[in-house]
Fold this protein.
Amino acid sequence: MKMVNPEWTLLPEKGADLPVDFKDPGKFQIAGLFRQTWVVDGVSRSVLTYAAEGLHYNCPCLIIAPPSHLEIVEFLQTGEFIKLAERNQILLVILETLNGAWDFSGKDADFMNSVYKNVQAREYYVVMQDCIYAAGFGDGASIAQQAVMKMTSEWSGLVTYGNFNDYVMLNAGNVSDSEAGSQEEELFISSKKCQLPVWMLFEHEGKIEKQVISYWKQENKSQAEPLYDKTGTEIFLPQNIKKTSKINEDLIAQTRITRNQRIDFWNIEKLEYVWQYIGAARRHRGYGNKLLRYYRNPMQNGATYHTIEVDGITREWYEYVPDAVASGNDEVPLVVAFHGRGGNGETFFDITDMSTVAEERNFIAVFPTADFYQIRQDGLRSVRVWNGNYEGKQIDSEKFVRTMIEDIKGRHRVDNTRIFACGQSSGGYMASYCALAASDLFTAVSPWSGFSLPGGKGPFSYHKKHYFQDGHVPFCMLIGSEDNLFDTSVIWPFPETDTEVTSFLKFLIEEYNLSKDPGVYNCNPITYYVWENAKGTPMVKIGIVDHMPHANYAEESRIAYDEFFSKFSRNEQGELLYMGRIAE
């Protein structure tokens, strides 16, 4: 077979050299096949990365350990991986060996796990955070198994083509050194054993293969008897036993085994058939672990996609309107959900599950995508963030939000007295910002691991001169106890030295003239602190979520709406109401 190399792309010296397309800010600024090199354990290691033309940020990423006997370009072409990436909008990252052979001592497994971390560094692109998949082919199958066994909770799925060697079970009882948890900016590594969608394809089943199968069946709590698909693949479903709700995590990890599989050629039909299963799962952060659920595509789950141009930038959002709302005549609440830094409206639709709350509570939920900014001095300039900037010029997110809401109100019956905002990290900052800068529009807000402190410094500062010009807006904040961006070790009684969190709480308490001592209660895993005004209205509420990093999880959407938003509204005079009574 004559090889035709894909187009090679030369990376610029730094990500800042890549301009942003204002008409399509979420599009990858690079396309083609390019080499990236990182230092791992003091050794320079390389990967080849393939970005399909038209790929957009927050795409899934597949990290591959290929057969050591094949050149990577030959492997890509022979296996039709280019087609897989283009059809399914996947970023491919292929590991390169040292000296043409894999090291099965654990070093190359660690290399694969380090690539996982580097891919999330946002140097030249942005992948869907925590949603990265592993694959191994030929003798690379054992490398992929070793890597994933050691850092299971970080991967969203695993597929291996090929028989295993005697070293494949090296990490069956091991986890990464970061088991206790490590966090740098938004990157969080917990490295715990947990369920994982796995598909293993090999030519024959020997003793080693039986051990690996047994390992994954145990980790995935598989049922004793398998099912079979049309190809004869053996499918072990997870046991139908679960002690907690499915809101945040569901038992979806199947263990799939395909025997008598030729492993020297991987055509697009076989690859896509496997990807349809492996790529359906997503990791989301929560308390105690990274949670696993099937991905909920907005368009396939009833949302509509909208764009509008504001200040020369094409802005976008996903809009969810329940059928009962669309066909009814009642004015309904509107909830705006702001994603965190580097995310977008599509992924936040999936992470929050706010659309399912909207469906069950009859309100409209919208998921806008943020502006962009330069992540570091020489870094990528198109990382999504609220109230961003470009080439030193500030971008006004509030203007976009107001324009978007006016557009929605022109098409749907929105109750102007019940417009709410929530969001995580940069989105929490934006929800808080809406309360301060747009109190004429928003009735209550629920920032998750983010807020806007007037007079503060850094990414969470409020930079406008005036705030609360049209009345006070109630706050319900949720922050993880292990959030590295905010010190939540002491919330009450207030410590002598203010933290960012306590400074913001003191600001609200003084501004709203609230009781000095909060009410305190626990609803596992959250401890709540509530400050009321003279009329007994809980104007400020903060919940500290046990064992959670810088993140939000799906149940926070229900907490925000059911326990907070639904209780607030405004009357015709614009006065704040709490459960129908004057609140202040």
User: Anything to note?
Assistant: DSSP finds 13 helices and 33 strands in the chain.
